[in-house]
Predict the 3D structure of the following.
Amino acid sequence: MQCLFTLCGLIAVGFVLLITIYLVISGIPAIREIGLFRFLFGKTWAAGQGQYGILPLILTSIYGTAGAIVIGVPIGFFTAVFLAKAAPKKAANIIRPAVSLLAGIPSVVYGLVGMCVLVPALREWLHLPAGDSLLAAVIVLAVMILPSIISLSETALEAVPKEYEEASLALGATKLETYFRVSVPAARSGIAAAVVLGIGRAIGEAMAIMMVAGNVANMPALTRSVRFLTTGISIELNYSQDGSLQRQALFSIGLVLFLFIMLINAFLNLVLKREKET
Amino acid sequence: MKKILPLILAAVLAVSALAGCSAQQKGGTVNTDGSTSMADVMGALTEAFREKEPDITVNYSGTGSGSGISGVLDGTCDIGLSSRELKQEEVDKGAVAHVVALDGVAVVVNPKNTVTDLTTEQIADIFTGKITNWSELGGADAPIAVYGREDGSGTRSAFEEIVGVEGACVYRSEYGSTGDVIGNVASNENAVGYASLSAVDSSVTAVKVNGVAPSEATVKDGSYTIQRPFVMVTKEGVELSEAAKVFLDFAMSAEAAEYITAAGAVYPY
């Protein structure tokens, strides 16, 4: 029996190793041919003209994720505080299933709604030639990361010992003061973990933002059409020829994205570890 | 590995030579090489051909028109595939063109757009960003949203090549498929895009180019200018293998028309 469990564990490790090795092997040649500096800091991506600079893609991924966090975290955080502490039972019974339903919606559906509703709306409101833009992608991402932020923060808040809050209330603090001065600080590492998880989700998303971001490799600006690291791979994969520099460069983008996500994961582990220690 | 490869190739050659000897059966391999835009047409043709002549294998490798033509001139493949007309220096070297199909690219706008007739220069100016408002073309006072395909798409390279804006286009958005371009043009009144003629439906308007509306007929008679030929290239003075000849004859025959049309191209004869 022990043997079977070990085997199952090893399969998971094996896949991670396989993917890592494959990405490194197929991602290195293009970087070597293009040059690491020109690849990472080149400002133009135009495979047709042999220009492979992914700085616009990297910046777009960072800006897009940051934007999603700026919009998504406050909403998610306050929803979590409300659900964990303040919500009347009836309201919580409606909101909680709604949040978990939000987590279950496939990303292509987010993209579709974004494409059919959000993109035309942005075009009308902001008088743009077309609504596909970084802003549209940020809004879609913000909604997509809400469920993970809400449910993780809520769990952390509910784990705060009742005695803390009771002590605070007994000392004369109002309910609101108790939530924000006692409960939230006590749950802060759990909330931080929720935010980091949200970052991880946002930076790895491809399908939904491919449908709303416009996919031109511009330097990022809110109302401009942009290309993320993830969408950079998926949009050009179909027509890039096997073995061509373009195809290899797409794998190199994958490698860069992989490193980004590894960093975020390492950071998440650090946060969680600190939570365990305190 | 490097030593094994010639051996295998030699063995394959020997086998195919033997197959050729045995009572003039039409077995063998046809190697075609060239244009990636012709992938669909070649796919349809080889599939139909396999049912007709199961003994002949047709290989296709998409490397680009230029390398397909030089491949047939150097003798590394049987038939070169080109999605553009041959250049004079290629003809001088002995390249012979056999046009198997024509490919039209339609410029599409939203049905609500009042601009329905453009010249090639105007189209070039729109896509390079010199014209940015529909009012400059006699339409409504609205910014132009230029939609296109991603780098590497055959439709994109065809369009940019024919209009003369290669690598100079300023796109507002790029999409991964023809359907996406048409869908987004259909939902945005400011948009202009391009799509293979066969994919255009009633949700968008295909504009007239220099006064000629795109259709199978106008592509065929050459009056619609945003089009390119799909060419099979052979070399003058070099005898085709039996298998290659059979395949070329099939591709040029009236029988192939249905498959070429199904692949989204126009049968030229």
